[in-house]
Amino acid sequence: NNSSQLSSLPLQILLYVNGIYYIFYFLATLAMIIYKSQVFSYPDDLLAPDLAVLFLMAILEVPRLYLGFKGNLTEAEAPLGLSLGLTVGSVVLCVYLLLWQTYVLWADVLLNALLLSAYGLESGLKVTAIAAFVS
What we know:
elongated; 4 helices; mainly alpha
């Protein structure tokens, strides 16, 4: 009886760290949007979309991380695949905040580059884990 464990410890750790980092990322980005709206002449019609992207990203992050944790721990490819799909959506929103939000400060670049790197690493580990579960 071969009872090999296929779930990925590096993925589990990274999901946990990403969850903690995302809380920091969200609060820092929200604070910067508020700061920019006070300091710069932020067009009213552009403040709402920038905030909407940030909040949509936060809403996506909860099922993304949950499905990642669940899929990895139960060695199930479906939740992990869904989590990977949600990661693609999060990457798109992150790129928006990196390149296309109304004002991009160096701190925005730093926060988003770090988040994109984490998403990239996490996605690679998810694909590897899914391949291990399927085989």
